[in-house]
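Exercise (ungraded).
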Amino acid sequence: MLPDNSLAVVVLSVELELVGMNLTPQSSGYFLVVLSKELQIDVRMLRSLVNSFECDSFETLVDYDMPRDVTFKKLAKVSDRTVVFCQQLFDQDEVVKGSAIFALGGGFNAFYRRKCSVDIGLRKEAAGYTVELHAFVGSEEPNLDEIKKILEETFDPLPPGKVRCTSGPFDPKMVKFLVEQGLDLFDSSYAVSLAEKNSAFRLADDYPASSSFVLTNFEDEKYADDFTKPFEDCSCYTCQNYTKGYLQHLVNTKELLASILLVIHNMTEYDRMFQLIRAALSISDDQ
Amino acid sequence: MAPNVATSSTTSEAETSEMKFDVIGRVGLARHGRLRLPHSVVETPVFMPVGTQGTMKGVLPEQLIDMDCRILLCNTYHLGHRPGHERVRAAGGLHKMMNWPRSILTDSGGFQMVSLSKLMTVDENGVNFESPHTGEMMALPPEKSIEIQQALGADIMMQLDHVIHVLTTGDIVEEAMHRSIRWLDRCTKAHTRTDQTLFPIVQGGLNLDLRKKCVEEMAKRAKVGIAIGGLSGGEEKSSFWRVVATCCAVLPPHLPRYVMGVGFPVDLVICSLLGADMFDCVYPTRTARFGTALVRRGGLMQLNQNRYKTDFEPIDDRCTCHTCRTYTRAYIHGVIGKETVGCHLVSVHNIQHQLDLMRDVRRAIDEEKVGEFLNSFLGEQFSGGEVPQWVRDAVGHMGYKLVV
């Protein structure tokens, strides 16, 4: 149960990443999203799904089947599918309730990134955007110049006043970089996925001036005899009430409480990171 | 008798007074008692949830306090192995390490050795076992069990006893009983901390004469409380309740009686009414992992069944736990087995169910309405089925009239 004053957004793409997705046309003329053999949805079902969830907003779908080595022919086809799916979603009698967050793709190709923005991003239904960046998540050394170029091409045709989101486990360094490129809204998957790896993070004291942070992995037995706070100056529930040694014990015994306490810490720190980023932005705004 | 139900249990109040047990209400054989321990005042009859590894299956200590849980059980064998008792001592003891300000009971570690070790022998020195983790042979004499338990620092420690399977017969039953008495004396000698108490464990298998003999010896040596051990190992229910009844009948009233390993709701109620005061079991959290909720009406609710898919009622509309106040059966059905929160939500409900059941027993004693409570409890628990014969026998033994 969510608190009364919180907003909820329907995101289908999280599941899609797990099972693979491509939008394929079928005889009815509607595009079909293949989630798995058992679960397939078309645009009518998506509309009814979004409406029955009664969330404040929802994301549209994007065909992200555009690997780096994709052929030009396929690139054009995939790009068209996203556009047509979007048209089918809105150009019908039945209204989709909630604010539409338009998912924008285009793979690694700058031209198709811009094309996607022009083709669907300018539609009047767009309350905001979410930029599909899954190919850049989790790589050790993402090519920042490439991401920068892609985002420039994506954002250039779009009105500046609409919210820009992205999803995926981006670390503090990437978040800072993406904010600098004009992104506004991120999800919490970094905090959770890090906890699932039995790890916690702490920002450097001068974040975001420097974008560095430290990672602590509690699988490491060197913490077993360390009964100090996980992070000395952190005010989260976990750091105020438990020790590194206890977290190591919980991780070692695979207890459920390990991930609960690590998620609490990581969420608190991820939140604090955005406070610091906003504070830094308002200072630079004043100057 | 004028009942006076205490609802507060401040730590400072408990720390300034010594450990003791007062019976504050009595109906038939059943007692409402108040056990003062260094970390909390425990109202009995009480159910103690089991946090084997020093955590309660993903439930935060604050959530347990919200449920008015006053005492937990932690397992010496597991904690002695990981993180190790020296580490727990270095962490400032179990209470501090796991952020639990209220009372804790630790077992002796002997029972797990019997159940988890492939190779296990017992001699006069103690229990010898092959560590399932390192493969080496290790010895656990009574002195070692106390050393470990003193490092853990629980409010209540259990003596090392010679555990034999409950269905064992012959001379070994009596030998094990006598050995348990000798081991109690060794435990008592090794026990040096004054802020922990040590419970003896009454043994004697299903032989009622041996049980009586053991009670006589053990009760002489008991200071704050005593346990009835060696049950819940697959014996017939008709033998089980008779052993509990026999022990409770001969135990002096000033000792709280802890029946080890008992946790089914009907067992808790019958044993409480026979005069037992403390219980522990992994049952509520273990069964939650399989999506089973404990309910007063009908006993069990298997939330993974398809009929709950579109059931937007709480697990139990009379239950005040966080899960029942917040979530529907359909939601839990949807997440059980997929998200850890499913098991967590059912664990919270099941622990609350046991704590509330014990609170209702205490209230029935306070209000002298035990007969009414027993009938309504059994009527709901076995609705659509028969009340088992052993329950009828036990109820008859206590002199209550059953109308269900």
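Further reading is listed at the end of the chapter. For now, observe: Chain A has ten helices and ten strands. The first helix of chain A runs from residue 13 to 19.
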